Amino acid sequence: MNLSNKLFTGKDPSSGQLRGVSVDLMRELASRLHVPVDFVLYGTPGEVADAVDQDTWDVAILAIEPARAEKIAFSPAITEIEATYAVANDSPLRSVAQVDSAGIRVAAPDKAGYELYLTRMLRNATLIRTKGFKESVDLFNRGGADALAGLTPALLESMPELPNARLLEGKFMTVNHGIGTPRTRIAAAEYLKTFVEEMNASGFIAQSIQRHGIKGLSAVQ
C-alpha cells in the first residue's frame, strides 16, 4: 500500500485504520481467494516498485508504466487521473506544451508514475527529482523549480500551500493505475486480469470512489 496517494489510500482519523479504494479492492480480492489480507505499508510508489524482488508483497496498486512493467505484470487499468503543472502566478508559461522548453526546471517526485513518464517524454526542460510530493512543493515554493508536476487532484488540494501559484489548463498525461504482481507469477497475473475485468464491469470501483468521496479519480468504464 502506497500511503502517499490519498486518492487510493488513507487512514480513518479516529481509528487510524486504513481505508480507501485500494483497501476495498484488496479486501475483495482476498475474500475471493479465501485468504487473509496483510497490508504492507510504503511511503512512496517508488518504494513499492523497488520492493518487487524482495517478496514482501504479492499485489499492489500502481500507475501502469513501461519502466515498471519490466518486473511487474499489470492488470488492465482500473482508474484514470489527469496530471498537470503548477506554475508561479507571474510565470510566462500559459500552456502545458510550453513547459518542455530550454531553461525550464520541473519538480517531480522520484519514481512517481508521472515522473517516469516525464523522464521519457521531456526533451528540453530539466527534470528535478525529489524524495516526495511535499519536497517538490517545498522546492517550487523556494524558487528551485519553474513548474511543479503532479496529479491534478493533489495539486488542487495543495493550492493553500502554493499561495503564489496557478494551475496550467489541460494535462500532460492521463495516469492509469492497475493491480500489479511480480512478473514471474504468471498464474497470478492471469487471475488479476479476470478479477479487474469483473470489477470494472460490475461498477465496484466507481461505487468505491463514490463511497469514499474521492474527487479527481475516475473508474475505467
3D architecture notes:
The structure is a single chain. The protein has 221 residues and is of the alpha+beta class. The chain has two domains: 10-79 and 175-219, D-Maltodextrin-Binding Protein, domain 2 (3-Layer(aba) Sandwich), CATH 3.40.190; 81-173, Periplasmic binding protein-like II (D-Maltodextrin-Binding Protein, domain 2, 3-Layer(aba) Sandwich), CATH 3.40.190. It contains eight helices and eleven strands. The strands form two sheets. Strands 3, 4, 5, 6, 7, 8, 9, 10 and 11 form a nine-stranded mixed sheet that branches. A two-stranded antiparallel sheet has the order 1-2.
Question: Quick recap of the structure?
Answer:
The protein is α+β, with helices and mostly antiparallel strands and 221 residues long. The chain has helices at 21-33, 45-50, 66-69, 113-121, 133-141, 152-158, 186-202, 204-211, and strands spanning 10-11, 18-19, 60-63, 72-74, 79-88, 105-109, 126-130, 147-151, 165-167, 173-182, 218-219. 33% of the residues lie in helices and 23% in strands.
